[in-house]
């Protein structure tokens, strides 16, 4: 009897894996037919037909009519991820503010809202502001729409196994059971029961770049966020690299200058102390061009070190510092070019985050989609 139960469980897992493999394939290659999917995923045509019927009925997929071209014979019906019925909620917890977006399964932003919270209060003040904002955005859903997952991007390391925010230095949070607190706050609301997934903000921003616009030319992908802190997210082979304790990507605390300026972590010469600064981001008093250029050169050094360590196919820059534009990016590119020429190597491909100021919030929605469609991660 036990073997039958185990076999049934294995069959259910296999079916779920095949279902989500279809969804992920169509997100990468929209418009494939059932025959195309069967060939690409090494499944039988009957299996694909049965699974796509289920996925269409549940709201994951849709099929569209084929344009008549005059060719003889029956043309296969193209399939697409349905952008309208099943939705994701992505939330960014920033330093003193939260941002919530409602997206489709393919990353289109359907609604968004921001709110402030007082960083001098405890984490519950942030949870309250976040919950209210999430409910306001969720209220924009239509009657035929359903939020199937919630993602949260947090300003610090996340231990997923323990469902904890390990450490967020800029808000002084240590070992916070953020997931449990948020789920408790959502009890009795329309979002109660929706699965909640959380991860470091740079990690989710990297997932937003790979999940919502997948490209084999951007793997491995390294994303670096620059604001009041510096963090990185790394995606290799479609998988997020988080480290043993959820602290992978804390590149802001890589030392770039011995005996340099004091960092928030207590050490000297960290990348964060040399690159990230509130002074650079003040809107009332633009920073001196020389300061921005110097920060850009140090950022170029950091990216060079990361490129040497991870050999990424693509480096993406994001975060509030991107408002500085070419004043910051030009010295970054010049520094990378200088190092590449000295070594006789091509420069790393470099671009700005696709979702701009919403990179973390949209990335958090991508995290929810990533976890829901990767069976081994559920």
Characterization of this structure:
- Pfam families: HTH_24, ROK.
- It comes from Pelomonas lactea.
- This is ROK family protein.
- InterPro entries: ATPase_NBD (IPR043129), Cro/C1-type_HTH (IPR001387), ROK (IPR000600), ROK_cs (IPR049874), WH-like_DNA-bd_sf (IPR036388), WH_DNA-bd_sf (IPR036390).
- Belongs to the ROK (NagC/XylR) family.
- By secondary structure, the chain is an alpha/beta fold.
- The chain has 3 domains: 80 residues, Arc Repressor Mutant, subunit A (Orthogonal Bundle), CATH 1.10.10.10; 138 residues, Nucleotidyltransferase, domain 5 (2-Layer Sandwich); 139 residues, ATPase, nucleotide binding domain (Nucleotidyltransferase, domain 5, 2-Layer Sandwich), CATH 3.30.420.40.
- It is 39% helix and 21% strand.
- A 5-stranded mixed β-sheet has the order 5-4-3-6-10.
- β12 and β13 form a beta hairpin.
- α1 crosses α3 and α2 packs across α3.
- The chain is globular.
- The N terminus is likely disordered.
The helix tally amounts to 11
- Residue stretches low in confidence (pLDDT < 50, at least 5 long) are 1-5
Instruction: Estimate the strand proportion.
Output: 15-25%
Mean pLDDT: 90
Order of helices and strands: HHHEEEEEHEEEEHEHEEEHHHEHEH
Tally of separate domains = 3
Quickly give the structural class: alpha/beta
Strand order of the largest sheet: 5-4-3-6-10
Note the overall shape.
Answer: globular
* Oligomer category: single chain
């Amino acid at each position: 009897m036990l073997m039958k139960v185990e076999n049934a469980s294995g069959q259910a897992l296999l079916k779920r894996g095949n279902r989500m493999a279809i969804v992920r394939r169509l997100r990468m290659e929209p418009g494939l037919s059932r025959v195309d999917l069967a060939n690409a995923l090494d499944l039988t045509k009957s299996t694909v037909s049965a699974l796509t019927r289920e996925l269409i009925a549940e709201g994951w997929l849709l099929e569209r009519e084929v344009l008549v071209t005059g060719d003889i014979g029956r043309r296969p019906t193209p399939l697409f991820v349905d952008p309208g019925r099943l939705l994701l909620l992505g939330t960014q917890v920033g330093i003193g503010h939260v941002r919530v977006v409602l997206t489709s399964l393919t990353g289109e932003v359907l609604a968004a809202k921001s709110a402030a919270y007082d960083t001098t209060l405890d984490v519950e003040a942030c949870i309250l502001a976040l919950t209210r904002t999430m409910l306001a955005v969720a209220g924009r859903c239509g009657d035929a729409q359903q939020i199937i997952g919630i993602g949260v991007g947090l300003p610090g390391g996340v231990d997923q196994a323990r469902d904890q925010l390990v450490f967020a230095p800029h808000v002084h949070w240590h070992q916070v059971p953020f997931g449990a607190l948020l789920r408790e706050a959502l009890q009795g609301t329309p979002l109660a029961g929706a699965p909640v997934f959380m991860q470091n903000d740079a990690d989710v921003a990297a997932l937003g770049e790979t999940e919502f616009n997948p490209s084999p030319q951007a793997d491995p992908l390294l994303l670096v966020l620059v604001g009041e802190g510096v963090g990185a997210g790394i995606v290799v082979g479609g998988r997020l690299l988080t480290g043993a304790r959820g602290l992978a990507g804390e590149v802001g605390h890589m030392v770039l200058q011995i005996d340099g300026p004091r960092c928030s972590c207590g050490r000297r010469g960290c990348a964060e102390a040399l690159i990230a600064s509130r002074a650079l981001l003040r809107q009332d008093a633009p920073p001196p061009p020389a300061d921005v250029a110097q920060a850009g050169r140090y950022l170029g050094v950091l990216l060079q070190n990361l490129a040497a360590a991870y050999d990424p196919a693509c480096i993406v820059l994001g975060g509030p510092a991107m408002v500085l534009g070419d004043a910051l990016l030009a010295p970054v590119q010049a520094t990378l070019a200088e190092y590449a020429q000295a070594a006789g190597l091509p420069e790393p491909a470099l671009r700005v985050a696709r979702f701009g100021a919403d990179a973390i919030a949209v990335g958090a929605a991508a995290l929810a989609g990533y976890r829901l469609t990767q069976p081994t991660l559920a």
